[in-house]
Every structure is written in structure tokens, then in C-alpha cells.
Amino acid sequence: SMTILLKQWLIENQRVSQMENMRIQSEVEQLKDQVNPSFLFNILNRTGILASKEPEKASQMVMKLSQLLRYQLYESSREKVLLTSEINFLTNYLVLESLYSDKLQYNITAEGDINRVFVPPLLFISFAQYAVDHSFYKEESFAIRFNFDAVDNHLYFYCHCLVAEDVDFSRITQRLHLLYGNGYKLSIIKGEKNRESIIKLELNL
Questions:
Q1: What would you measure as the largest C-alpha separation in the chain, in angstroms?
Q2: Is the pLDDT reported for residue 75 higher than 50?
Q3: Starting at the edge strand that comes first in sequence, how are the strands of the sheet with 104-112 ordered?
Q4: I need a labelling partner for 73 at 20 to 30 A (CA). Which of 7, 65, 81, 200 fits?
């Protein structure tokens, strides 16, 4: 009878674990959807305006947008992607934003052996969106900087940008917690008033 009870317990425990994994995966997918770029209609509208005045620029915007959408459609279904693919996706997004607004300047640097690092897809785009959206109201040109540093079994991501006092990264941290548990650390190094701050994300790989 003990053998039967143990077998039933193992079966039930496996079923609960499968259900929990399915729930977590579902939540991750929902959060992933929420961090997708939300500027599609603005870009299409801007492209339509430029089509007659600056057709070459409009063509560049369409090409970059197609690359973004292709990545989202095919790569976002994967559990992990190469960090270099994420950086390329981030670069395409920033190129597109800079074509949309001449005020934007950006810089992306990477250090360490990033060619062997795998991360969940669409992990950094929400930080880029925040950096662009929060700085967009400025009348003068603005610059944002991103740095990736792979050291041993850790990945450090830095986003240099303006950060509001009431910044809310709860959805981002929710996804990070589902993906990494306690294996991540998100912090903000505040700069002086109206000066850039640093959003720092550390991941245990």
C-alpha cells in the first residue's frame, strides 16, 4: 500500500509541477507581449508623411520596421536567444527612433564574451522604450547610452538616461522574477536633477 501511495503522490506532484510550469510560461508570454514596441502606428504615420518628401528616409524606416517585426514574430517564440541578436534588435529599434526624431542620439557598447551569452528574447527593449519616451519631451537633442558587460557567469546591463522620480518597473521586475527568481538585481543610480541616471541590471547566467 505504501508503494501505491508513493506512486500516486509522485504522479500528483508531477501534474502540479507541470501545471505550475504552464502557468509561469503563460505569464511570461503575456508580459513579453506587453514589452513589445508600442510605436508601430506612429512610425507608419511618419513613414506616410515622409513618403513624398523624403522617400529614401521613408524606405529606411520601413526596412528597419520590417526587421523589428520579423524578430518579434520568429525569435520571441524561443526560450533563449543570443545576446548579440538582442543587441541587434535594440540597435534596429534605436535606428528607427532616430529616423523618427532627429533629436535622438544613442550609443551601444558591449564588452566580454557576449557571443556565448543567451538571454530571454525582448528582455531589454522596455528599458530602451522608457529611455526614449521619457527623454522625448526635451526640446533640445538628447542622448541615451547602453552598455553590456559579460563577466564570468554574470551579465551587466547599463542604461544611461533620464529617470523620473515615480518610475515604475513593476512589470519588468515581474518578468525578471519569473525568469530568474533571485538570480537578478535591478537598481537605479540617480543622477542630479535633470541629469542622466543609470538603470543597472545584473543577471546570473
A1: 82
A2: yes
A3: 104-112, 142-151, 154-161, 197-204, 184-189
A4: 200
